[in-house]
Amino acid sequence: MAVTFSHLFREPITVQYPEKLDRPISETLPPRYRGFLEVQMDICTGCKRCERSCPIECIAIDLVKDPSTKKQAMSRFDIDMGKCMYCGLCVEACKIESTGAIRHTREFEGATSTLDHLTFRFIPEGLVPLYKAPKDLSEVPVGEYGPHAREARERGMRDNPAMLDELRAIWRKQNQTGKKKKGGKKQAKVTIDAAKAETIKGNVVQTPKGDVGEVRATPPLGGSPRRRTAARAATTRVTTLHEGDGGGLGLRRVQVRARRRRSDGRPRVRDGRVLEGPRAADAAAKGGDAAAAPAPGGAGGRSGARPAA
Q: What CA–CA distances, in Å, run from 34 to 87, 106, 244?
């Protein structure tokens, strides 16, 4: 309780922001604070380095030809501070490769009722001529940081809502396509020529189907990597084309895989069936299923049983 009672006789340290401050809080921030962006238009060369370096495209610059001077001039330099992520890439590109016209300030107070107020327009009207930078960039007359951002912020809060509402109305009028139809996009009806219907039907019905029974899944190869490579090399694929009565072509693929026997001469047996060996080869030659060949020694033959000579 001694600590609690000691604060009863001290002056309060709570500061009512922003009414009771000795100086603006922006002046108490460090010089390299990343606040609002500002552009000093009288030293801007219009090189668009800042626009190209922005990863989220929140800077928009328009260059037009001034009819009076026949030279390039800027008609728009807008920065959407509601979209900006304060990465500083635009400032770095302008400071190193150009005159440093764009920079961060210590201004941060941007509480608004809508994001439309945070679009800073540094060219409210007319054209701004391009600045010709000297060879020595230290001679560029860089002004005070902050006043351009404050001016653009006040102008945006005052003029942006009415201007953007007018632009949105123009856009809706230009892109008006009528009422939206219910039920989504309607698919067009597919029509078939009556003369081709009989030919198409004949091709579909008369084209023979492939024999699915001839294409069977083969068990995985076992053994050493050298044996598996040799077995894969012995694999052959035969493709046959069948001409149907209707002129269509049916495709059937028959896969034949040559199997190597074990080094000890024993066939592979699974569930009483010979998977490979002489009996399986004889069964395949007669047109039967190799996997259906009975194992030597009866239905319950062991994998260790040797085939009959």
A: 8, 7, 76
Question: Which amino acid would we find at residue 252?
Answer: R
Structure tokens at 207: 């084209």
Q: Are 108 and 36 in contact (CB under 8 A)?
A: yes
Tokens of 176: 């008006």
- Tokens found for residue 96: 């190193």
Distance CA 238, CA 210 (A): 13
DSSP, residue by residue, 261-276: PPTTSPPPEETTEE-S
Per-position pLDDT tens, the chain of length 309: 888 888 888 887 777 777 777 788 888 899 899 999 999 999 999 999 999 999 999 999 999 999 998 899 999 999 999 999 999 999 999 998 889 999 999 999 888 888 888 999 999 888 999 999 888 888 899 999 999 999 999 999 888 888 888 888 888 888 886 555 555 556 566 666 777 666 665 655 555 555 544 444 445 555 566 666 665 555 444 444 444 444 444 444 444 444 444 555 565 666 666 555 555 556 555 655 444 445 454 444 444 445 554
